[in-house]
Amino acid sequence: MSGDRRWRTPCRPAWESRDRHRSLGRLAVAGLAAGGAMAVFGLPPVDLHGPLHHAGVMGPLCGGTRGVHAALLGHFGQAWRYNPLSVVLVVGAAAVVVREIVGRLGGRWLNLLVTRRRPLVVAGLVLLVALTVRQQAHADLLRIGPEPGTLGAPLLYAAAVPLVAVALAAALAVRRLARGRAGHG
């Protein structure tokens, strides 16, 4: 029964001479640097919550910033209480940085090859729903927020909208250029 497709894992690790996840290392370093800055300077003085949060609806990312802050200070229990995903992110980012260092020094990269996408998508959706339910159950803890008088989420969103529009326009321009070059090659 070893050939039974139902029991195969949906992904497998492979050591290869090519890095198939090139941007992952830079993203992990940037995330750890941002988290390290929070550990040194404290949480942002901005209310990052959306309108649903203020209505008592907690999303799966609620508590993530405080959780990452706590995890990088070594308070993993507190980080887990705020959001279990924060501990996974910090440990995962550290593992990715180690992968990056080993790959650059040794010229061999540990790549994760997805062999079956559907089980990963189903597992991800189940975990997302479970995390959302868990976060809603901890709404009393997560509703404790910044002091009154800090900048609100609408102000933060208003500042971010032009940046997102510029980023989308740049991405579309790059895509058009790439298509134009592909058509002339």
Can you give keywords for this protein?
transmembrane helix, membrane, mainly alpha, globular, single chain, DUF2752, 185 residues, two-stranded antiparallel ribbon
Q: Number of folding domains?
A: 2
The coarse silhouette is: globular
Write down the overall mean pLDDT: 82
Give the C-alpha Rg: 20 Å
- Stretches with pLDDT under 50, minimum 5 residues: 147-153
Structural class: mainly alpha
Protein name: DUF2752 domain-containing protein
Organism: Streptomyces halobius
Transmembrane segments: 24-43, 79-98, 119-135, 155-174
Pfam families: DUF2752
Question: In terms of topology, how is this protein built?
Answer:
Layout: E1 11-16, H1 22-41, H2 51-54, H3 64-72, H4 76-82, H5 84-106, E2 109-114, H6 117-137, H7 139-142, H8 153-184
Antiparallel strand pairs: 1-2
Helix pairs in contact: 1-3, 1-5, 3-4, 3-5, 4-5
Outline of this structure?
This protein is mainly α and 185 residues long. The protein has eight helices and two strands; from the N terminus they run E-H-H-H-H-H-E-H-H-H. The protein has two domains: 142 residues, no CATH class; 34 residues.
Would you kindly provide a written description of the structure presented here, covering whatever features stand out?
This protein starts with 10 loop residues before the first strand and ends with a helix. A two-stranded antiparallel ribbon has the order 1-2. The chain has helices spanning 22-41, 51-54, 64-72, 76-82, 84-106, 117-137, 139-142, 153-184, and strands at residues 11-16, 109-114. It has 185 residues and is mainly alpha-helical. Helix 4 (76-82) crosses helix 5. It is globular, with a radius of gyration of 20 Å. It is 65% helix and 6% strand. It has 2 domains: 9-150, no CATH class; 152-185.
